[in-house]
């Protein structure tokens, strides 16, 4: 896969000379219908995470001295890189 700048391509298409309008119409339809890529994945908030408030939560640590559970201070609106939605849906 190769990412392109569709806005710059649109500008070049406007400047291009076309054999006939049908070719230009098809090209514009293809450009408008082309799939897009979402490069940014929103993190799962702790309150939406299936691990929140469980022993499997990445934000729960254990003391080296006595092996007691230590809450690292996150709440329902926090997030980490290990979150998975409770409903099984992919990240937004």
Concise synopsis of the structure shown:
By secondary structure, this protein is an alpha+beta fold. The protein has a two-stranded antiparallel sheet with strand order 1-2. 25% of the residues lie in helices and 7% in strands.
Characterise this structure.
Helix content is 25%, strand content 7%. Strands 1-2 form a two-stranded antiparallel sheet. The chain has helices at residues 6-15, 21-33; strands spanning 60-62, 69-71. The longest helix has 13 residues, at 21-33. By secondary structure, it is α+β, with helices and mostly antiparallel strands. The mean pLDDT is 77. A hairpin with a 6-residue loop joins β1 (60-62) and β2 (69-71). The chain is built from two helices and two strands; from the N terminus they run ααββ. It folds into two domains: 1-37; 39-92, no CATH class.
Strand-residue proportion: 5-15%
Which percent bin holds the helix content? 25-40%
Mean pLDDT comes to 77
Across the major sheet, the strand order is: 1-2
Order of helices and strands: HHEE
Task: Give the termini separation.
Answer: 22 Å
User: Helix tally?
Assistant: 2
DSSP strand tally = 2
Q: Largest sheet at a glance? A: 2 strands, antiparallel
Number of domain modules:
2
State the shape.
rod-shaped
Radius of gyration: 24 Å
Return residue spans where pLDDT drops below 50 for at least 5 consecutive residues: none
Structural class: alpha+beta
